[in-house]
Fold this sequence. Notes:
Blueprint: H1 5-32, H2 43-72, H3 75-98, H4 104-132
Amino acid sequence: MTSHPYTAGVTLLIVLLMFGTASNVGYARGRYGVKAPAVTGHPLFERALRIQMNTLEWAVMTLPCLWLFAAYLSDRGAAAIGGLWLAARIAYAIAYQREPASRGLPFLAASIAFGALGLGAGWGVLRALWFAS
């Protein structure tokens, strides 16, 4: 396997973000008295849960695109765009926890980064298929 150390580093940071959002849900359960398996209760708990779920939903789509981009185009390029996605998702989580209406701009930034990863990955795979023939 070809080495992709930059993409691997960003991947580990994304995993750390997912762990952080999960930990925040556990913290919010205790702080606001929401007993498992309940998923509703205090509004700040519900925000923490939605942040975690939304982060997981997007990470599931982003990580394959990140790695395909790295494998077929550029490790550094994938890591740079993945780092932008990560920074935007952190900003999204902070904004959503403070005031849900303020999450729009970070969400848009993360979506654009995801789109760039997806388009780059798609181009890289198509290019490899084209030249493989």
